[in-house]
Structures are given as structure tokens and as C-alpha cells.
Amino acid sequence: MTYLSDIEIAQQCKMQPIAQIAAKAHVDEKYLEPYGRYKAKVDLSLLKDTDRPDGKLILVTAITPTPAGEGKTTTTIGLADGLARIGKDVTVALREPSLGPVFGVKGGAAGGGRAQVVPMEDINLHFTGDFHAIGAANNLLAAMLDNHIQQGNMLGIDPKKITWKRCVDMNDRQLRNVVDGLGGRANGVPREDGFDITVASEIMAVFCLADSIVDLKARLARIIVGYTYDDKPVTAGDLKAVGAMTALLKDAIKPNLVQTLEGTPAFVHGGPFANIAHGCNSVTATRLALKMGDYTVTEAGFGADLGAEKFLDIKCRMAGLKPDAVVIVATVRALKMHGGLDKKSLGTEDLAALEKGVPNLLRHVSNIKNVYRLPCVVAVNRFPTDTDAEIDCIINKCRALGVNTVLSTVWAEGGKGGEALAKEVVRLCEEEKGAFTFSYELDGSITDKLNAVATKIYGGSGINVLPAAQKQIERLTALGFDKLPVCIAKTQYSFSDDPAKLGAPEDFTVTVKNVKVSAGAGFLVALTGEILTMPGLPKVPAAEKIDVDDNGVISGLF
What we know:
Strand content: 15-25%
Shape: globular
Helix content: 25-40%
Radius of gyration: 23 Å
Largest sheet: 12 strands, mixed
């Protein structure tokens, strides 16, 4: 049997004009700003003008990622189409892809198989230019910072205490550490510098958490770019950069509207990485989706210990959101990898490996149910090689925790393969009311909050704060930042900070190496393990397979 690639499936889709999708999403054409025939931005004034009540919010998350893949975005899209097929008024809210992973190894963020958002080539490549606007605003601030020092340094900024980096939306390890300002006095002040990937920029986090232009400006003004010689923070507001930065972002902040393969309205907007940032689409897109549908399906990046934790403890706290149900995505193949099985052997039944790996799923389930106190369902992406015995094993283990398991075939069948999951999600929303709580409260110390996540969510025994990080914690506490939520930068491949520890490890400590404040975003960032804010390309990058024919048709894009 010949299987079509994701891009071939997407290119066969007969898309509906974006005005028709807007009408389906109850968006009047006067709020629509088309970008071609199949994409548009939606003016934020709609949020003020509409009197529609909020719909139900469904969060899709997953087990700890493995090379076998889980299909979280695919499930999110397929579930939305499944809800539409059973007669529900539904919208979906997703992150935008970064060009770095698109050309690297991870791939895009438009789903796969028969559960995709389209036009997938546009979404994965430039889209409506949001990320370029964020990068431009980031680099304008960097230029104004260095220019201030060059032009007399009235604020007394210490070049050795600059914390603001330039950014580019590409995997480029060569730019992690650079020396700039060379070439004599006329060419700047020489100093060590570096680049982050755009999705790791604090402006991306600010962009995704701001709920209006006014809030965006206030958050941008609070961004700390460095410290003075007497150790006082210097902000973007101090550099008088905020107005110009906002001018670059004024259109980008409007959510993008596209569609699924089956014509379900999809708001795709913003995209911070979940292992180094908070990993959720924009607050504005989520709020708009909630107003425009009776059910909104959204996702958070990587496993539930990263994306879901940050969605719940940071985004929901700041935006006043409360999920009505949570879907945890798993595959038999991935759980067998967590049980120690080699990737080449995943196609054969191995109940022993599955038994060893399934505690990873159960810890995520327990966290959602018992820590956050939200109703949840496990969605198993079924592969042809999965046996009934393996499926039954997962069903029985989850049933012991009081959670149902539903098989999903959305990759192969689209919305039809998500109908059973959709019905269970509707049941959860209507019959099981959660008592949503956070994993920590804000009035604790920075150390208390980090320890709460490490023990309650990761399942570790605690944290090990290195001396340099302890000094930073003390300094941030003295500056009054200790009551902010925490955003832990950690490997996505393990509950611990060691990517080699698969499954559900115990008796480990999480080593905190560095703690910094993202004052504009409104959270503290704790760096653990070997976390890079500028990824590199693999030996054989995906970019090598991408091409365009004489008619402008793209191939090789997944």
C-alpha cells in the first residue's frame, strides 16, 4: 500500500475560503483581515464587542516524548473534527511552528495524516509573519541597548551584566556564543554576546500572555535587559524602546484564523517552546476561540510535566482560564520505549516492556487528576502493530486510577477516528466537574515553588540549587520578584533533568543551575540540566529534502 505524505494529503484538500470559515466561527467579516484566500487575522476588538459566553475548554497533553512519537497536535486537530462530526460547535487553538524545527529534525506543528490544519505549507513557512515581527522587536531592543552604551551610557549599564540577547528563528548553533562590537570605537563596544532562537525570546512569552495592546506595552516596558554598574535593573522602558517595539507587533498580536482538513475553524497564534518557555499558544487566541465555539480544543507542548504544568500554573493563572477536561495522549510504541525496548523492536508484542513503561503515563494521569483535580481521559493513538493484549493492559491500568481510555485513529481517519474520543470528552465536560487547583501558590518562596513542581509533578525527591543559582534567587527576592510563578526549563525526554531516565524515575533531585526573571512575561525561569536556548541542526536536516517545482508547489515538507 502506498501512503501519502502529510504535505500530499494537505495539498489534496479543497479548502474553503476563509470568509466561510470565519462565518462558521461566528466572526463577522468586519473583524477579518485576509492574508490571501485561506488565511486571515482577526481584530482583537471582537473580544470586546461579542456577547457570546465562553465555551468549554479542553486541554490536550501527552506522555513524556520519545522518538516513537505520540501525536499530540494530530490528536488535538482530530478531536476537534470529531466534535464537529457529532454536532458540536467547535474551534481549535494551536501554536505556530518555528522555522528551526521545520528545517531541523522535529518537524512542523500542523498535525499529520488526515488530521491537519491547512494551508500547511504556509503555516509551517513564514505564515503571516508573526515570528519575524517578534524577532524584529527583539533585535530592535538589542540595537537600542548597545546604541545607548555607545552614545554615552547615561543609564550606567554595565556591558558585562547585559542579559538581553539577539534572536533568529532558525536552528543555528554557531550563534550561541559570539563576540560583537569589533572593529574599533565607531563600530560599537566589544562584548560577549549570543543569540536565542526566536521562540525562546522573552518577547515571544510576552506576546503570548498579553491580552491587549495596552497590556503588551506594559509588559514590554518591564522587560529587564541588563543591570547597571551598581546592580540596578535596566528595562526596555528605561531605553524608551516600547513604542517602536509595539509598532512592530501591532498586527502580529491579532490571532490568525485558518481551518482543519475538515473545515473546523482553527486559531493558530504564537509558539514559545515548552522546555525553555511556557509552551502555549497566545492568550488572545484561546480567549477568541472560547468565545467563538461551544467547545475549544487546545494543546500544550511536550509532555504534561512541561506543557500542561505551565499551561495550568502560568497561563491559566494569569488569564483566569479553567479547563473543563484534559486529554492525555499516549501510544503503545512510546510506552514500550519507556520500558526500555529498542525502537527497532516496537512492532512486536512485548507486555513486559509495556508494564515497565506504563508508569510514565500513570504519573501524568495522576498529576492531572490528583494534583490539578481535573477530569481526564487517555487517548491511545492506535498503530496497526498494537495488539489487543497491549491495549487491554493500558485500559486496565488507567481504569484503576478511575480514568477511561479511548482508542484514537485520527491520523488515518481524521474526525471519524476521533468520534469516540469526542463523546468521552463531552461526557467529562457535562458529568464530571473538576475542582481546579494549582500545583503551588504564589505566596511561597522561589525555592518552595521549584520544589513543589519537582516533587508533585516530576515525582522527584526535591531540588539541588547550585551556589550561583542561590545567589540569583536571593537577588531576585530582594528585587521583589519572588511572588511570580516559575517556568522550569528542563529536558522534555524525562520527568527528571536527565534525558536518559525514562519511564517514571524516583528518588532523583532536579539541579537548578540558573534562575532569571522574565519580568515582562511575569514569571521566573529556572534552568536545569543541559538546556539550550539556541538549538542546532542535525547531521541530516529536514531542509535537505525540501524542494519547489516550476509551478511553485513545495515537496518534502513532512
